[in-house]
Amino acid sequence: MLSREQASAMLSLQAEMNHKIDPHWVAAAYPYLRAVIVEGAEAIEHHGWKWWKKQERDNAQLQMELVDIWHFLLSEILLRHDGDRERALDALMQLLNSQAGSEAIDFDDRTWRLDRLDPLGKFELLIGLSANRRIDLTLFGSILRDCGMNWLDLYRQYIGKNVLNMFRQNHGYKEGHYRKVWSGREDNEFLAEILATSDPEQPEYREFIYSELAQRYPG
C-alpha cells in the first residue's frame, strides 16, 4: 500500500502538471473519469478480447495504461477538493484504507466479487464505476496485481513519467529546443535505467530522479 508521503508526492506532481497544462484547471472541471473510461477501453484492447482471432496480451502497454488511469484518478480526487492537496490527500488515504481487503463491490443492483472476475471483467467494472462517478481503489489495486504490478511499482512508474515530463518542459520541450535523444539513446531509456537502480522509498525520490536526469542531459 502507498505511504502518506508517497501519496502526497504524487498528488503534488499531478496538481503541478494540471496547472502547467491549464492554470485554471480547477475551474475548468475537466471530466477526468471520462478519461478513465477511455483509457480502460484502450487497456482492454492491449489485453486482447476478440474471440474470433488470436491476440497476444501486451503487459507492458497494460501497465502504461494503468499509470495513465492513475493520473486521471488523482486529478479527479484533487478536483473534488477544489485542488486543495491536503484535503485531497486525506481523501485518498481514506479511500486506500477503507477499501483495503474488501473483495466485494456493490454496483448496479448486484455484488461483484473480485476473486471471480478476470482482468477483462475488472476493466469493464472500472469503466462502469467511472461512468457512475465512483472511485474504488480496491478494484484498481486488484487490476494492478493482475497486470504484474503493486502499489510501489505504480509509484515508481508514475513519479518517473511525471518527472521526465516536467524535465522536458523545463528544458524547452514546448518551444522545440529539447533534445530527446542523448548520446544515441532516448531519454526514456535513461529514465528506465535510473528507476531500475534507485530506491523508490528513499526521501525526496522525485528530486533524486530529476537530479539524475540533469546529470545525464547533454544540453
Strand content is 5-15%
Architecture of the largest domain, according to CATH?
Orthogonal Bundle
Count of helical stretches:
10
Sheet with the most strands: spatial strand order = 1-2
Tally of strands: 4
Average pLDDT across residues?
93
CATH-level-4 superfamily name of the largest domain: Type II deoxyuridine triphosphatase
Encode the helix/strand succession as letters.
HHHHHEEHHHEEHH
Shape: globular
Radius of gyration over alpha carbons?
18 Å
Please summarize the sheet with the most strands.
2 strands, antiparallel
| Residue share in helix | 55-70%
- Estimated structural class: mainly alpha
Distance between the termini: 38 Å
Could you characterize what this model shows?
The protein is mainly α. It has two domains: 4-149, all-alpha NTP pyrophosphatase fold, CATH 1.10.4010; 152-216. The protein contains ten helices and four strands; from the N terminus they run αααααββαααββαα. It has helices at 4-21, 25-28, 32-47, 59-80, 85-99, 119-131, 137-146, 151-170, 187-196, 205-216; strands spanning 104-107, 110-113, 181-182, 185-186. The strands form two sheets. A two-stranded antiparallel sheet has the order 1-2. A two-stranded antiparallel sheet has the order 3-4. Strand 3 and strand 4 (185-186) form a beta hairpin. Helix 9 crosses helix 10. The longest helix has 22 residues, at 59-80. The chain starts with a helix and ends with a helix.
